[in-house]
């Protein structure tokens, strides 16, 4: 069973578009830079990241989204709790992010 991991970001108002673009590029790069320990094989099956474009008006201040797909819950668990590349990127976000939401669904 696969898993879809959705992250919504709300950037602080003082963060400029250049920095937001840089962060989003770093998030997109996770697809290629996150690898399993030992085998060094990539384990993210799909990753999409972009600015919101909804017309519905229910964003509640969230402006960007990252949708990551994994083949298994175990892969997501490694990503969320142990992958050094992902953890380092996440540790650098607080100065720029006013809000963050994470939801996962098994598919």
TrEMBL record:
Database matches in SMART domains: Dabb
Pfam families (UniProt xref): Dabb
SUPFAM superfamilies, per database record: Dimeric alpha+beta barrel
Signal peptide: none
Positions of the Stress-response A/B barrel domain: 3-105
SUBUNIT field: Homodimer.
Name of the protein: Stress-response A/B barrel domain-containing protein
Taxon lineage: Eukaryota, Fungi, Dikarya, Ascomycota, Pezizomycotina
């Amino acid at each position: 069973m696969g898993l879809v991991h959705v992250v919504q970001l709300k950037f602080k108002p003082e963060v400029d578009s250049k920095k937001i673009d840089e962060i989003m590029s770093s998030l997109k790069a996770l697809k290629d830079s996150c690898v399993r320990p030992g085998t060094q094989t990539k384990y993210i099956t799909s990753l999409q990241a972009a600015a919101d474009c909804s017309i519905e008006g229910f964003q509640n201040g969230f402006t960007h989204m990252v949708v990551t797909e994994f083949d298994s819950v175990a892969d997501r668990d490694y990503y969320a709790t142990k992958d050094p590349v992902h953890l380092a990127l996440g540790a650098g976000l607080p100065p720029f992010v006013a809000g963050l939401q994470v939801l996962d669904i098994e598919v």
